[in-house]
Amino acid sequence: MKQITKIAVTLAIMAGLTMNLMAQNQRGQGQRQPGNRNRGGRAVVENIMTRTSIRSYTSQAIPADTIEILLKAGMAAPTAVNAQPWHFIAINSKEKLAELAGTNPNAGMLRQAPLAIAVCGNMNKAMQGKAREYWVQDCSAATENILLAAHAMGLGAVWTGVYPTDERVAAVSKVLKLPENIIPLCVIVIGHPAERPQPKDKWKPENVSYNEYGK
């Protein structure tokens, strides 16, 4: 239960739904004390700060209910004008995973992984004109939600890029039999970690300005 709560709060931050979820929790559990909210907030930030890419996995399978939670996490992401221009393909076939490994020189870990999720843009749901490219931002937000949810549940995952490299897009589309309106943004490789790398400290004050560039 604590694990699911942690996931829910994480998704709330990513999807801009924090206030609604807090209201639901208060109705179901009663008014929380300020200290509890502070501890929950720290847990969310810790989950974000300790997430790191995992590229080695055990042979343990991932059950269907866990896969569904990951997919729900993706669909909870913010999306321009609520277009939701995405389509997710969960891959747990060892044959398909091995085929996908051949589409990207940086995705060899797919051969040992029990699961991958291809995050794709659906151009039939995307906005029109130049705004169509917002699908990339929407699907990227969905990808980060899945990565954070996986970490919160004790899983390891890594984002392997597909779009906009034409050769990778074509290869992944062929393996997954994607129609022309579905464009793969990335393939998230997921499994139970067989390694525990330390997360990188990426905080660099020189990358921050206040009010205008350089200040």
Explain this structure to me?
By secondary structure, this protein is α+β, with helices and mostly antiparallel strands. The chain folds into two domains: 49 residues, no CATH class; 128 residues, NADH Oxidase (3-Layer(aba) Sandwich), CATH 3.40.109.10. 43% of the residues lie in helices and 14% in strands. About 13% of the residues have low confidence.
Any chance you could write out the topology, listing elements then pairs?
Elements: H1 2-15, H2 18-29, H3 34-50, H4 64-75, E1 86-91, H5 94-101, E2 115-122, H6 134-152, E3 156-161, H7 166-176, E4 182-191
Antiparallel strand pairs: 1-2, 2-4, 3-4
Using the coordinates above, name the CATH class of the largest domain: Alpha Beta
Order of helices and strands: HHHHEHEHEHE
- In CATH, the architecture of the largest domain is 3-Layer(aba) Sandwich
Strand % is 5-15%
The total tally of domains equals: 2
- Counting helices, strands and paired strands, the structural category is alpha+beta
Cα Rg: 18 Å
Terminal-residue CA separation: 44 Å
Number of strands: 4
Question: How much helix, percentage-wise, in residues?
Answer: 40-55%
> How would you name the CATH homologous superfamily of the largest domain?
NADH Oxidase
CATH topology of the largest domain: NADH Oxidase
Give the rounded overall mean pLDDT: 89
Number of helices: 7
Residue windows where pLDDT falls under 50 for at least 5 positions: 4-31
Enumerate the strands of the largest sheet in spatial order, edge to edge or round the barrel.
Answer: 1-2-4-3
| Largest sheet report | 4 strands, antiparallel
Q: Outline, from the CA principal axes? A: globular
